[in-house]
Amino acid sequence: MVDPVIEIEVVYAAVDRQILRSVSVGEGTTVRAALLASGIGGECPELDLAGCPLGIFGKVIADPEVRVVQAGDRIEVYRPLLADPKEVRRLRAARAAEAKARNQ
Fold it and tell me: What protein family is recorded (predicted)?
């Protein structure tokens, strides 16, 4: 018997481009297996498909090797941040305080 097929999307935003793929996978496919089936690794060799963090509609998946995709899911591939957001805010606030002190 053939497993029913479902449609999902896989997205990845690199620094210089964005990739969105529609993928057909069998019911019961895990998030990580669906990512591998998408073929996105061929376009983005810099990605560690076996270990990169993944999410579905903005929510990080703790165990993508176990979580099964549902029809219509959008798997998001996350890349490391280039800068810590807290540190960036702290530096911006320090520069603003310094500028304010100079203008008084």
Answer: Belongs to the UPF0125 (RnfH) family.
State the Cα–Cα distance between residues 11 and 74, nearest whole angstrom: 7
Locate the DSSP E strands across 33-85.
54-56, 59-60, 74-77
- φ, ψ of residue 59 to 5 degrees: the values are -110, 125
Give the Cα separation of 88 and 83 in Å (integer): 7
Q: Which pLDDT belongs to residue 1?
A: 55
User: Which residues, at least 6 apart from 83, have a Cβ–Cβ distance to it below 8 Å?
Assistant: none
Mean pLDDT by 10 residues, the chain (104 residues): 85 89 94 93 85 93 94 91 84 90 82
Mapping DSSP to helix (H, G, I), strand (E, B) and coil, where does residue 73 land? coil
Identify any residues that bridge with 23 across adjacent strands, giving them in sequence order. 8
Helix (H, G, I), strand (E, B) or coil at 52: coil
